[in-house]
Amino acid sequence: LFRLPIPSPDVVLGLLGQNGIGKTTVLKILSGEIRLNLGNYKEVPDWPQLVRHFRGSTLQDYFQRLSDKELRVVHKPQYVDKIPRIIS
User: What is the pLDDT of residue 72?
Assistant: First the structure.
């Protein structure tokens, strides 16, 4: 990945692109399911390291709020009939 999209409050974020380009990986990073390794392949950085890495950018506040559990991230499943079970 070369960069991450920047989520905005009260805005739906969608990603479009070819298969295998990293859309699902980006969504997992932005939801906190996985963390960027920041080039360290031996161990995954903790939240404070990740927040420091994005110091001075909009993503710093986003990842800080995500680590503090102040954000709620919802994925739209591929099968929209499952949305009521996921949201409730």
Answer: 82
Rounded to whole angstroms, how far apart are CA atoms 12 and 21? 20
**Residues whose CB is less than 8 angstroms from the CB of residue 32 and which lie 6 or more positions away in sequence, other chains included:** 66, 67, 73
- This prediction has a pTM of 0.77
Q: Domain of 46?
A: 23-87
Judge whether 9 lies within some domain.
Answer: no
Question: If phi over 0 gives left and psi between -120 and 50 gives alpha, with beta otherwise, what is residue 10?
Answer: left
State how far the alpha carbon of 56 is from the alpha carbons of 13, 60, 61, in Å: 22, 7, 9
- Contact (CB, 8 A) for 1 and 25: yes
Within a domain: 16 = no
